[in-house]
Design brief:
The complex is a heterodimer. By secondary structure, chain A is an all-alpha fold. Chain A contains 3 helices and no strands. Chain B folds into 2 domains: about 1-95, Four Helix Bundle (Hemerythrin (Met), subunit A), CATH 1.20.120.1200; about 125-169, no CATH class. In chain B, helix 1 packs antiparallel against helix 2 (about 30-50) and helix 2 (about 30-50) runs antiparallel to helix 3 (about 50-75). Chains A and B meet through helix 1, helix 2 and helix 3 of A and helix 1, helix 2, helix 3, helix 4 and helix 5 of B.
Amino acid sequence: MFEGVPIHWFLVLATTMFFIGIYGFLVRKNLITMLMSIELILNSVCINFVAFNKILFPEHLEGMFFTLFIIAVAAAEASVAIAIIINIYRRLVNIDVEKMNEMKF
Amino acid sequence: MTNNQFMFLLFSAVIVIFSLLTVTSRRILRAATFLLFVLFSTSGLYFLLRFNFLAAIQLTLYAGGIVVLIIFSILLTSQINDKLSIPPLTKRIYAAIAAVAGAILCILTILQTEFVQKTFDPARVHIRTIGEGMLSTGKYGYALPFEVISVLLLAAMIGSIILAKKRKD
């Protein structure tokens, strides 16, 4: 128990954020907004890790280290994704997923 | 209501409202700004849990790095005045059904589970502990993932430079 805040509150918050991200990923067509939904999903998972670490297992710092690794992987993923998006924009002048139906140009 | 409860509810309200705005806003630059607010309040939650180093990393790397990268790519790929097209109603309904059903399932499972909760330890994580954990190879040491992440970042850097540079056809 974190001074009146039980862990369930954290988990419900992270679940809500995760499924908002899922909704955005399913609904959006623009590649950059889909990337933003993925960032929301990753962020909600980070909140889960940190809450589990601090409230259930405070002896070690496993959740904190994995959150650090998630943030590093998210940075790498965002940079590669944006390079791909810019490359696609240069060829198609458009970044809607529905306009991209060829693997090879 | 204690101070911490109030701060938690404030941060979670900001997170939920601005996440919804991020996925529904029709102006893409505003969506990126709302994402920035979500990341700020997540870092506030980390400060609340006394993970100061993690909160600082969240602010500098996520809010300072990734969002700026996203905003740059928005400016490179779309016009500021463009509005995103509204997705068709059936698509929105199906996506909302999927998301709400999954959320209800998970939240019910969470609320029925009993967790063994420890008393809260208000001590901050010492930076020395983090450094030793990152570089030790024993139990609770993370030397291998640390090295793998460094190789991954190098590979991502080279890959994105090669992907984004102009080709001489």
